[in-house]
Records
---
Amino acid sequence: MLYYLLRRLLMAVPVMFLIALIVFLILRLTPGDPAQAIAGDQAGPEQIAAIRDSLGLDAPLTVQFFTWIGNMLQGDFGYSLISRRPVLEMIGQRIGPTLALATVAMILTVVISLPLGVVAARRHGQFVDRLVMSLSVLGFSVPIFVIGYVLIGIFAVHLEWFPVQGYKPLSEGLWPFLHRIFLPGLALSSIYIALVSRMTRAAMLEVLGEDYIRTARAKGLSEWVILFRHALRNAAIPILTVVGTGFAMMISGVVVTETVFNIPGLGRLVVDAVLARDYPLIQTIILLTAGTYVVINLLIDLSYALTDPRIRYQ
Amino acid sequence: MTIPGLRALGWAAIAAGLFQAGPASAETELNVVMQAPLRTLDPHLSTAQIVRTHGFMVFDTLLGMDAEYKPQPQMADYEISDDGLTYTFTLRDGLTWHDGSPVTAEDCVASLKRWADNDAAGRKMMEYVASIEPSSDKVLVLTLAKPFGHVLELLAKPSPVPPFMMPKRLAETPPGEQVEEMTGSGPFRFVAEEYRPGDRAVYVRNEDYQPRSEPASWTAGGKVVNVDKVVWQAMPDMQTSINALQSGDVDLIEQVAIDLLPLLQMNDEVQIGTINPLGSQVTGRFNHRLPPFDNADIRRAAMYALDQEQLMQTAVGDPEYYTLCASDYGCEVPLASDAGSEYLAGSADERMAKAQELLQSAGYDGTPVLMMQPTDLTILSTQPIVAAERLREAGFTVDVASMDWATLQSRKNGWQPVAEGGWNMLFTYWGVTGIWDPLVHALLDGSGDDNAWSGWPVSPEIEALRADYLVATDLDEQKRLAAEIQQIAYDQGFYYNAGEFQSVAAWRNEISEIQPGPITLFWGVQKSE
Amino acid sequence: MTAPVTPEIPHRRLAGNLPHWTIVLSLLVLAAIVAMAVAAPQLANFEPTELNAVMRLQAGSETYWLGTDSFGRDLYSRIVYGARVSLLVGAGVAAGAIVIGLPLGLLAGWFRGFDAVIMRVMDGMMAIPGILLAIAIVALTKAGLVTVIIAIMLPEIPQVVRLVRSRVLAARAESYVEAAQLLGTPAPRLITRHLLPATVAPLIVQATYIYASAILTEAALSFLGVGIGTEIPTWGNIMAEGRLYFAMRPWLVFWPAIVLSLCILSINLLGDALRDRLDPKMKGRDE
């Protein structure tokens, strides 16, 4: 187990290096000039040139790349070219809202989609099943910003149940936090709810046909105990897999949701950084999300062992 | 909109002398959605309006400009020698930096030099300056080598880079590097711990600030702060901002999309109005170094083809908030002129006929016009599309190249052929405060110099007239020169003046006494509970 | 190095119970949208770029069936023309991802030497969030049709490679492939005759999902201001431009949203149906 973990971690090293290289090259081989972003559109060429000089962007690319990697290995992620703040500090300021949003979306997903999937499987082929399945396809098919606008239109503007925008950290109280994060969390979770409820249903259908479920039924266990205790537990692996691979999808949702609901998170930070050519910031954020992806999937692989004793690692 | 009157004077006196203890009531906090996110802080290095607005919060200037366009004492009083060559500035009492140390003449000299390095008009002025030296802790002397008529205007100018004062140690930051420490002497202190670049900036009232006793007028007079805290937020979505204003989450939106005003007009808790009476000019710039716009006849044909009203209507909508005029210096400023208006006269159809005729006789060979269009800047995303349609109708071949604003800005700096990433035409806009005379107007630079602002027109006549303007002190003389320059700029097709639009702000009823100014100013403003 | 020890996922029949009529309906909707794209010049009432500053933001009328946008352009005509780009983006991305992903997947599945290298690169590409990569590529180069297609396509490639590879690995274990191998069939022949066919069905299904998600991603890019320029109408950029006026003229967003969602819904339903028919053992889009 430990050996497996180590091996997986080692395998992640070249992957991360490759990501760093890809991102670096894409950013540096394309036009755009952070000095211009600092100087503003009315500045003349002389002023822009002076700023560019001070940013050290004229060094050869290979030098810049290895300096960057070297510094990172020493824990120095550099400074934003635009705001001159440490990149990690800027990310630190923005990561809270994003994590909160993602967590709430995940909780909503689990709370909504597991019962939906289980019920659909239980009522296999009946009206409820078809309804759940149709709605879930809809979840895949409507852009997240449209869902966001519809939610704002109905629940915030018309019914006034929720604030229309903004974010309050948990430190300002549970209620203000939840009150503001609920709608964006729901918007973000829409695609997941669709995905996970389908997956739950499918996995449950599979499991419900197994012998031990029939045995449990024969033993006279209550239907809910069978469904949620026995069947769901054994259907956990495919569901977990979806959660892991869905991470990439969530990033895309986060960027859009943060814009619609005005949440000062990482998604907006990275879009702004790209538009201003803030290279160190873009690079670090992409590496960070990529690293998170790698770790999440590793954790999920490990969790297979916990949920399914049949799996062994070489 | 209210104009400050005697009340401001009263407040100034109170604040200046008696009440240093701060308000007895609960803290008043002004929440504002600014027109752009604040990402950089150095107001000398950036020409962006948001950084300038930030500059006026934290920093102060030697002179201010009042609503009559007159330079007035702000940090310093001034005297001019009889020969007009020596300017003596005496700092007023009670000026301190936010770190508590006193403001000295030495600090101001260093700041002026740094400003002049970074501002095109400032650099121009330095060509005429023999020296700027401190003569005591409180006095600095600027000596001209030859006559220059605009020292005071430049030191008071609010745009695009105002001469902000900062401590010497900050002013000596190497060229091109940003000043990161926000220690100024202005009426607000910057709260560095709460700054989130691109998202949020927080200012608190500077309790040590001693406002002048005169009533506030633009950037001149007493800067009396009546709120404890000002919080700037950026909201990327205009709809979200409006929702936030209506629900009371924010108090003021600096710039509302005109098309959305009807939403706010229905709400009686919200008022709308114009803070900056001068507005902004939209400009269509030709690249004079590349065909087809290296030919003056073809540039003129393009000018005939374009239509101010159509451009403004599409970009702004409500005619109440735009002005059509020929004046390159702004429609309502002292130097405003209608020279060259023949290029805009007549109906759109008549001008189109002229354009088609002129284009043909100029021997246009079908060279495509590469028009740059920003996708992420709403105020400038429509003009290139509208212009492209008109130009095509006139007989031009036009390629619209869509790109984000950052790409557009860096691409505009190069003059290589279009196939290698060059461009033929772009639209930008300029606050009228930044173009209101031939000295500061970047698009009227006829030097053709590589270091001039993009477009690089060449006109020795204009350069000669601009040199005359630099030494002209008499307003009538200045007006005559400005009009002549404008006429030549039209005849030679320097750029297309696409009209002027107003920025409209919206605020909740609790907010009052918003000061009109060349930018959004936060002194004077009151917020009731 | 062996394949990751991802356990076998029980097969699912996601759409096994979808009634026939949904499939028929999806086909009809898709046919209508394709027809709309092909016959756009005949169907549209105006040129999609024809401006009329005086007629901005009009409500629906006899002249402007669905009203006009902020340039005074006819919304209906733009949506009709928008079908072209959306379908083109979907097709370009799906085709490109398969053309690049298929050979890589075959190589990785068959030749152990390539496997490690290819799969590590693919892991790296998968770990970079697709939208961020796409934003970077589009924003930093040029917001044209081809750039957008490439930017959306790149993140889809690893999915295709992994799918093909897993199919090849499964096929290798089949006795007929082992037999052919023992008989000394040359690798290229083996691949084209025995392995390639095993990948066709899942690829067709995968292609429908890539198609649908590409259209959505294009819309998201336009929404964030880094999509295709407004001179070429796409459902995404129509919505993005309309969103400023959402509170006053919500139909500027809703009309393209409805067409877009219908289109994607149909493609997804069709994909589910195809999966049932062609490939009942397919493990799914989500691995």
Note: The mean pLDDT of chain A is 82.
---
Amino acid sequence: MAGQGKTVIKVGLSTCGIAAGSTKVYELLEEEVSKNKLDVTVQKTGCIGMCYKEPIIDLVTPDGKLFSYGDVTEENAQRILEEHIKGGKPVEDLLILTERDEVVGRQVRISLKNCGIIDPESLEDYKLAGGYKGIEKCLKEMTPEDVIEEILQSGLRGRGGAGFPTGLKWRFTRGYKSDQKYIICNADEGDPGAFMDRSIIEGDPHAIVEGMMIAGYAIGASQGHVYVRAEYPLAITRLEKAIEDARANGLMGDNIMGSGFNFEMKIKKGAGAFVCGEETALIASLEGERGMPRLKPPFPAEAGLWKKPTSINNVETFANVPWIIANGADKFSAFGTEKSSGTKVFALAGKMKQGGLIEVPMGITLRDVIFGVGGGIRDDKKFKGVQLGGPSGGCIPESLLDTPVDYDSVGQTGAIMGSGGMIVMDETTCMVDMARFFLDFVQNESCGKCVHCRLGTKRMLEILTRITEGKAQPEELDLLEELAYNVKEGSLCGLGQTGPNPVLTTLKYFRDEYEAHIMDRSCPAKVCRELLTFTIDPELCNGCRRCVKRCPTECITGEKKEPHVIDQDKCIKCGNCYDACKFDAVIME
Amino acid sequence: MADAVESPQVDAIPYQEFDKITEKYKGDPSAIIPILQDVQEIMGYVPKNSIGYLAEKLEVSPAKIYGIVTFYAQFRLQPKGKYIIMLCEGTACHVNGAKLISKSITDELEIEGGQTTPDGLFTLEKVACIGCCSLAPVMLINEEVHAKLTPDATRKVLKDYVNKEAAAQN
């Protein structure tokens, strides 16, 4: 790596790190190092995945010893500078080495192998870590057919959600004769709660460039497009730099490595539409149209972008490709299960103790992921369910926690693997509210082409809203279920076909919660405010009048310094009094 | 989605700037989206009265451009406020109480998602996931991230901005 022979400080500068304040830490360290003329290199790196400990810095001594620090505020950075770098004594209370070993040590990192390790803006760093060896091997030793065969043998399946075998997709696309073919990288990561694609591009952009080049070589495409969310500005900047650097070093353009293979890449910024994650909608958007899906067949492999043969693969899929070529298919398929080989990246969030990004071999159980790698539930509350696959996925209950994470086992539960968003919910999460949340998202993002998706999701949302407000009738549950199946059957693309999954899985596993909302007009998780009653505990209330000032309907009465009372007829259950009270005197039940 | 309500003000269209943009993408039939992104970059929004001009330049119907502007969440037809509050409503933020944060912003500023305060100071935009899931609930005000919010903390952040503006005025 750059700066060998001296101490290297690596600052985690991904979106999550920056959100936690790592830019200021980076600037401070650079300034101090140059001001004090310290023999230290300060460099940027991507995300190691332990988002809950950001900002994170790694200090590598000249003899290669690693010290990992978490929660590095500017103040703590000063301490590390003074005590460790100048004083030579590690700052024990900030070290997260043991924890890092525990969290990272349980993982198998293939697509995240360089994230949080190398400088993502340095081509040299990527090459030192074995980068561009995969494409070199392809160009010098393998025919395109060999490459496809290798990927087929590895068992790699599409990491964007559907899990279609990557090698097969490439073989189909290669099979069609055309003067021009395209390879597209789908980086339109729309699942609200998944951020692995962003993190991979931010942390290891050259891996995507190399993966796409290998794919281009395999299918016979000389042009690659990356369709990336405009909401990911840092990922776009780093990818642009990676492409420029590759071009400047003869790794892109005409006659790459003297092989006669030509390849060029372009970045297209998405404009914010979840449906564009669907292949044909993405193609429509690339062509400058409204991103609406098209009828399949013809599949993109036959007639994709500009009606030319096109292969669309996901960011994480591409990130696996160079590794597979360099290390061999057998090494890859040694991880995971028979039908789902390799590893999968998951974004752990929600009520997790240790939220972040992890990569584990397929086939380990949900329990191992959540309670092992993820450290369990925050505040030691009770686990209730885990949402897999975002708005297209489903909620899996505690009884199914021993389900192995592979495409087929997860599919059997009614959820999908999806892109790998894993949102953990505890007893304070209302499953009806959750279902409503996802459906609201799907309803908003429906492109409007299919009647079932456009109107069906709207009607379903209305029913769910009535349930959360305690206004629904018992027979509406059956109607909701019927509508859900109709939407699945009557929609052209994945958005409508999977959009009702969160509703169907919560109906299947948490029906009692729906019934409590309808029959008892109560929300067991105390989330749906319309079903709650707010009262004031006269023992705890000291009459500070904070709640009175915040009540929009003036329904709280009582003398100053005397216990207050809420007029239930006037109360609109906005919860302001509950939020305002400093003495926990407002009871919500 | 972009709001179709009439703009309260009509900005003059910098035609020369627009011509530079269309020239940059000349001959690329797929360029409507990047052109609109560039227009929004310089104007802050896509002025309704510019759609006809762009349509003529690109030799497409105004309906096509309007269709694209209203389809994609990124485009807005109204000018934005000085501070854009991007409230994350992704799953992790939702589970950790984004709804309460949304409510406190609406209570404090009297605007809903997609709206701008009458003084032109704040625009509230609700977005699905900005990728800081383990710092949830999160909002971005311009470039600054405000993480692990509570309703009280949110109100304080907004008040700080208002006070800062008031101080700058005096």
Note: The longest helix of chain B spans residues 151-169.
